Write the structure tokens for this entry.
Amino acid sequence: MTFIRRVSLSMVISMTGAAAAIGADSVTSAVPSFTTSPPAAPRTPVGAPLLGPGVSAPVLTATYPNGVEALFDLTYAQIPGYRPLTLDLYRVPKGEPKPAVVFVHGGSFLNGSPRANTPLWGGTDALMAYVASKGFVVVPITYRFSSEAKWPAQLEDTKAAIRWLRANAAKYGIDAGHVGVWGESAGGGVASMAGTTCGVSEFDGVGLNLDQSSCAQASVIWYGTSDMNKLDAQAPANAVLIHNSPDSSQSKVLGCVLYYECPASVVAKANPIAYVGSKRTSAAFLIMHGDDDKAVSWKQGQILYDALKASGYDATLIIVPGVDHYFVGATQAQAKQILDEVVAFLQRTLSAGTPAGK
């Protein structure tokens, strides 16, 4: 029997101020103070290069409650012909090395930002800092959009970021043996692929640090896709998107019209269920979806959960009642419990005492 845990919460409030219930260390209460580190280079004579040997470009930093520090715009890959791919890094810089969690933002593969506001919690930077305060190095990344490069570029970029983190683990206080990935919407699909494609060398085709593993030990998937060809068949009556169309985000990222034109082999490369049976890794999965999602049906989460459990993975599916895509419509109590579930899962699966997987 398929096991679904339902978040059952009673208090209903308006979206305004929904994050207030998270507590004294609320993700929306952070007001960062910005500094630059290291100091800017001394002024140079006209005609001389601004940055010379031994002089680094200043790194923008910010501080948050609970001792969290953030570093912004660190370049993790420079692919010829594309903009530099960057990441932000949120951490408590003291103590033992901590597990890292790569965050892949949503935006239909067309747009979005790791610093865009969320409908439920407000500033994404404060959300990242909140999770970092629970014992992680949280790393939201940029990646190439579908207008820049087709699939699997987005997965390749995410794996390049994971390898970069492992290569720079000592510098940033990261436990290289425990790295997870967390994604929302389009990023949720990337996160599930990162969790299921450990050791698939064709997805390690860009970036540096190829001597490092791109495997993820844990994957948190918020309202992502699992089988693109079933998106329209599973759509609810009040669905707001048609996926089998030339203008859909799936068609644009795949480079062909989903269902009508895309070869099965092309779609399979973007579907995590195509890689589940191989059981290449001991990764654990937390899948969270609203049961009133009008963009991606919660049944996409069910498909992945069923496939993972059938292959012996550690998998949890949580369906949040009355909630739409991006958890829009969640109550104050649901907002808190969603984050509580994520933090508890990451602490269980990425702590120093858990096996690192492959």
The first helix runs from residue 124 to 132. Residues 6-37, 41-48 have pLDDT under 50 and may be disordered. The domain at 57-230+271-350 is CATH 3.40.50.1820 (Rossmann fold).
